[in-house]
Amino acid sequence: MTTSNEMTEIGPRDIVFDCPACHKSMVVDEAAEGLTVDCPGCTAKVIVPSKTDESVETPSLPPSPAGVDPRLLALMSKLKELQTQRTEISNNIAVRLNDINRQMVMLARLENAHQQVMQEWNRVLAELKPGATGRSQANFKA
Length: 142
Known about the structure:
This protein is α+β, with helices and mostly antiparallel strands. The protein has one domain (2-128). The chain has helices at residues 51-55, 70-128, 135-141; strands at residues 2-3, 14-18, 25-29, 36-38, 45-47. Strands 1-3-2 form a 3-stranded antiparallel β-sheet, with no helix packed on it. It has a two-stranded antiparallel sheet with strand order 4-5. Strand 4 and strand 5 form a beta hairpin. The radius of gyration is 28 Å and the shape is elongated.
């Protein structure tokens, strides 16, 4: 992964996108599509968008805007606005997915800790049951 500050040539297999947290531009190979990468600017976890998200391009204007139908200009402006909104929403989704993934990891850790405590609980109960032999039963009666 490279950042826009580094002098790099962007190839046809590259995906260019901005960090939704700090807006730093990043470039990755299309093989990283859908993977989570660390932003070099703010270390936020960022999901690499699909190449199709950036492939919807606004048609270019003819060299001379004179004589261009005003309806085309209005449509091109609307397309650009819609693309900006789409990118923003995609980035917001990526941030929320990262939050969900982080919380799922935390939940898995809690489940693991819960299982360990329950195993210890059952082990201690087994030691304290009436008829159990050994010192633990004597301590329990005391």
